[in-house]
Amino acid sequence: MLKVVSLQVAVLILAAAIAGLWVGGRGAVSALIGGSAYLIPNLLFVLRLKFAAAAGRTSAVIFAFGELFKVTATIVTLVVAQRWVDLHWLAMLGGLFAVLQANLFAFLLKT
């Protein structure tokens, strides 16, 4: 699962670079914020699952609460960011979309 997070980081960097070339610094920062809004909660979720699996305490409840945490943290992060930072909305949504879609491409890299 950490390979998926690594792929998400790479895709986020690419999306921020493209947004930076397209819009400028504001676009790059917006794409980073948008992608990080999902990437960071996803990383915490993956680490929590990894530690639970190592301790032999995995369950559907842990998974469900982890997914709920990811969605809630992403929404809260985006709401807070739009209030504090002058976001370029298209770049921010592009960064978020790129990181979300990286999960689909991870299946192509599965060995």
Radius of gyration: 15 Å
Largest sheet: none
Number of domains: 1
| Secondary structure: helix percent | over 70%
State mean pLDDT (0 to 100 scale): 89
Strand content: under 5%
What's the helix-strand series? HHHH
Q: What is the global morphology?
A: globular
Termini separation (Å)? Answer: 12 Å
Oligomer: single chain
As residue ranges, the low-confidence spans are none
- The total of beta strands comes to 0
* Count of discrete alpha- or pi-helical segments spanning 4 or more residues: 4
Structural class: mainly alpha
Quick summary of this structure?
This protein has 4 helices and no strands.
Features of the shown structure:
mainly alpha, globular
Structure, described:
This protein is mostly helical. It contains 4 helices and no strands. The two termini are 12 Å apart. It has one domain.
